[in-house]
Amino acid sequence: MKLDATAQKVLDRINADELVELALDLAKIDSPTGREGEVGQYVYDWLLRNGFAPKKLGLFPDRFNVVATLPGQGHGRSLVFNSHMDTTIAAEEIWTTRRAADPIFHSAWREGDNLIGNGICNDKGPMATWLIAAKAIRESGIALKGDLTLMAVVGEIGLEPVDEFQPPEYLAKEAGTRYAITRGAIADYALVAEGTDLGLIWVEAGKAFFKVTVFGEDFPIYTPYIKRPTPLEKSPNAIVRMARLIERLEEWAYDYEQRHRYECPGGVVIPKVNVGAIRGGVPYKITKTVQQCAIYVDVRITPAQNPLDVQDELRRLVAGAGLAGEVELYTNRKAFEGQRVEPLADAIRRSHRQVFNEDPKIGAPHFASMWRDINCFNEVGIPSITYGPGASVGGGNFSMRIADMVTGAQLYALTALDLCNQARE
Length: 425
Hints:
By secondary structure, the chain is of the alpha+beta class. It folds into two domains: 5-202 and 338-419, Zn peptidases (Aminopeptidase, 3-Layer(aba) Sandwich); 206-333, 2-Layer Sandwich (Alpha-Beta Plaits), CATH 3.30.70. The chain has helices spanning 5-11, 16-27, 37-49, 118-140, 177-182, 238-259, 307-320, 342-356, 365-368, 374-379, 402-419, and strands at 55-60, 63-70, 79-84, 109-111, 114-116, 148-153, 189-192, 203-204, 206-215, 262-264, 267-269, 273-280, 292-301, 325-333, 336-337, 384-386, 399-401. The longest helix has 23 residues, at 118-140.
């Protein structure tokens, strides 16, 4: 790549071995949502050692966001680099992940030219790339006009309160980026560093979580008294009746994502639906039919949707299946499309062209169809884009190429040099 002397001076200070060491150190610290304290302290100490002045912004003292700023010289556009420190799988979650204690979810290692581990991909690998990029800018002695803020957050992965699972133990997004923003960690623009295969995304799906309960007979029936054959929807057992509803729900889900596909310049949202949990009966007493059974349904929504409309559809679905039941909306997180993102998008494009001699593409629909913290920034009017090396772990990927991470650090450094040296309007 052909770079001016300023950019080359910064990129010369990006060390691949240092980047690998940092990424592995971060990812070897197990930090499922709610237990981010140790990795937060590591990030804080790393920033302190490398000449930054970090601070802890925490809703809870044992799980805090870490924020540091490389001050600009004034009158330049400011930028936030943001990544999350929490990971997706806790070792005890055997009812979501059969091998939940597998080291791939809780540690990291190198295999040849790749780094392996859940935490590497989501999201400590991308975090390490911008930490190293910011360090390179600082050590180069080059002064930016605008501030560059570094934000490592907790609670990006949702633990949503429901039933007996209540705060503070079960609480995610309110403690993370949203909390940091309200405590002054803001900028003119935000770049949320997560894997997008280096595609640009500035729209993300929202989330509406529903508890859908189906009722059985008014009185439990002892096992010897159960009559068969009986249509599923007429069974005295609410668990059996739920089988009929799930069948109908799967048909509805396909139709739903077709009807609500959302296309915009910043990406394509295809709002998916997933049955994430089911409850009914108790395993130590299974001698009678169950009177109620609940499923917990993750319904993704677009910026054009109202979750109350989805609630109405689910209620009609229950009634249409010939079932008695109820539908409760227990989580509502809106979707947002970034506005006025062009200065940041253009800075990323220019940086991408310097490295690859071509423009970045818009990211694939699955990247725009998930929740990422660009929603928090775009909600409060801070234009935000997600863009980063590697792919999400959501599709079963647990590997990142070291070369891609080094390239990511270069791209983030070039983007900051570009945007933060533009005059602030």
